Here is the input.
Amino acid sequence: MTGKLDAVRQNRDALVRELEAVGAKVTTGGMLCPFHEDHRPSAGVYQGKDGAWRFKCQACGVCEDIFGVRAKALGKPLAKVLLEASPHAANPSSPTRARTGHRPAGRGKERVYRDIGRPPGRPAWSNRL
Ligand SMILES: [Zn+2]
Here is the structure.
């Protein structure tokens, strides 16, 4: 059942196309990372021991396969992306629809900090010391 997804993971061109779709720029010296404000190419793709190609950014530390890249770019849970990519997905048009909801990458940092919330050391339930 995961055979098709594994085939996609092992397709370098598919990963590169996905990265370009979310804003990565492939250059001779490497790749401009779509997940942070990248001015020098600090990212690239490599093939893991399992045969899957992964994107890795040396600057911001993102390391994802094609589905992880898609999930991150769309702000969706990985499980949902995998479900949509699965050959058994009920709605074959959903990947297209997912793409139209795509937000530009690279300015998610503020949101990440907001989601983390209150600084550590003061749990919400501690009213006194
Ligand atoms: Zn990066």
Summary: The two ends are 54 Å apart (CA to CA). The beta strands are 25-27, 30-32, 43-47, 53-57, 63-65. The chain has six helices and five strands.
